[in-house]
Each structure stands twice: as C-alpha cells, then as structure tokens.
Amino acid sequence: MNRLILFLLLTALLAAQSKPEVEVAAEPHHHLVLTNDQVRVFDVNLAPHSETRLHWHRHDSFFVALGASEIVNTVEGKDPVSLTLAEGDVRFVPAPFAHIFRNVAAQPFRNVTIELVQDEKLRPSPPTGTPRTPRTTAASKSSRAARKKSSS
C-alpha cells in the first residue's frame, strides 16, 4: 500500500513538473519589442547550454542571427537539426510549427525574429479556374499607340 501511494505521489510530481507548450510571446527567452498590424518583433536571448520551452510560431517569420552561434532545433514531430549560424545570417521560417531550441555554444545565442502577422494575405491564392486577362483601358491603348508611333 505504501509503495502504491509513493508511486502515485511521484507520478503526480513528475506530471506537475512537465511544462506545457506555450505561444511564442509567452516563451521566456522571446522578448516582444515591437508589434503592429504587420509584424511582431522579438529579441531572443538564450544563455549558453540552455534551451527554450516548447513554443508555437503561428506566423511565417524570419530571423537575423546577432553573433555566431550553434543551436539544435527540435521541431515537434521531427528529428533534431543542428545549425551553425554566423553573425548576420538571415533565415526564413514558414509556419505553423512548435519547437524547442537548445544553445550548444559557450556564448549566448541572440537573434531578432520578425513575425509576419498578415502572412495569410501574402500567400498566393489558389487558381479559381478561369484565368484573369488584363483589362485594356483607354489610357493603356493610347500609351501603346504613342510607343508604336515613336518607334516607327
């Protein structure tokens, strides 16, 4: 009976220690420095040999490395990927995804992450069946006539 109680207590303790996934803005190493209707900009700082919490990126983004660094990026459901970044490296990252990244270098990892809030509007629309043809206006007709006249 005592072993069962001890087992249940240990299980509850371990379950309480597991940290659930969070949105990127709630991840402690991502510091929101600018937000508007177009972008959210995060200053990201991660100490040597530490890692982020599992967090979600819901919008396409790109990041700029602020210094040389080595990280291991583990996207949920995929194998870990090692990245060696030079200062000024820029990477585009399509969303959505959840990940943890770990700084394996002896120096802090820093980057600026720019999240494109309206990324859905930037993606091309799927074809609707009938191709659009350019409209010819009176102004474009007169412009073509003037170009034709000047070239002859």
Secondary-structure blueprint:
Blueprint: H1 2-17, E1 22-23, E2 30-35, E3 39-46, E4 55-57, E5 61-65, E6 69-75, E7 81-85, E8 90-93, E9 97-103, E10 109-116, H2 119-122, H3 138-151
Parallel strand pairs: 1-4
Antiparallel strand pairs: 2-3, 3-10, 4-9, 5-8, 5-10, 6-7, 6-9
β-strand number = 10
Trace the largest sheet across and list its strands.
1-4-9-6-7
CATH fold annotation of the domain at 19-118: Jelly Rolls
> Kindly, what is the distance between the CA atoms of the first and last residues, rounded to a whole number of angstroms?
102 Å
**CATH architecture heading of the domain at 19-118:** Sandwich
User: Whole-number radius of gyration?
Assistant: 25 Å
Identify the notable features of this structure and list them briefly.
single chain, alpha+beta, 22% helix, 5-stranded antiparallel beta sheet, Jelly Rolls, 5-stranded mixed beta sheet, 152 residues
Compact overview of the structure:
The chain is built from three helices and ten strands, in the order αββββββββββαα.
Give an overview of the whole structure.
The protein has 152 residues and is of the alpha+beta class. It has a domain at 19-118: Jelly Rolls. Helices cover 22% and strands 36% of the residues. The protein is built from 3 helices and 10 strands. Strands 1-4-9-6-7 form a 5-stranded mixed beta sheet, with no helix packed on it. Strands 2-3-10-5-8 form a 5-stranded antiparallel beta sheet, with no helix packed on it. The longest helix has 16 residues, at 2-17. The protein is globular.
